[in-house]
UniProtKB/TrEMBL annotation:
Substrate binds at R14, R31, K42, E91. It holds the Pfam family CM_2. GO terms for biological process: chorismate metabolic process; salicylic acid biosynthetic process. This is chorismate mutase. SMART domains: CM_2. One of its GO terms (molecular function) is carbon-oxygen lyase activity. Its EC number is 5.4.99.5. Keywords: Isomerase. It comes from the Bacteria. Residues 4-95 form the Chorismate mutase domain. It comes from Paragemmobacter straminiformis.
């Protein structure tokens, strides 16, 4: 693993971005495991896939983390809202409410 300042060529940069992308996909796969388990638990206790207060809590957390990392919170919020919507759609399909 090279730090950005250690990259001397575009090949170095591309290799690190590809490595990070693979790690991000692995993290998303872990997140999906929790989403799937949440759908199982929600089915058992009669909760809907979408719980608006939780959606907003997740977004607030992401905005806080973005700010702490020096990233634009508005941009990360837009990205995360897409991720959350995808997650809700996945839960809904598992709960038998897929349109």
């Amino acid at each position: 693993m090279k730090q950005p300042a250690e990259c001397e060529t575009m090949a170095d940069i591309r290799a690190e971005i590809d490595r990070l992308d693979a790690e991000l996909v692995a993290l998303f796969a872990q997140r999906v495991g929790y989403i799937d388990r949440a759908a199982e638990i929600k089915a058992q206790v009669g909760l809907p896939a979408r719980i608006n207060s939780r959606v907003e809590e997740v977004i607030a957390n992401v905005r806080r983390h973005a700010e702490a990392q020096g990233l634009p919170p508005d941009k990360l919020e837009k990205l995360w809202r897409k991720l959350v919507e995808w997650s809700i759609e996945r839960e809904e399909s598992q709960l038998g409410r897929d349109d």
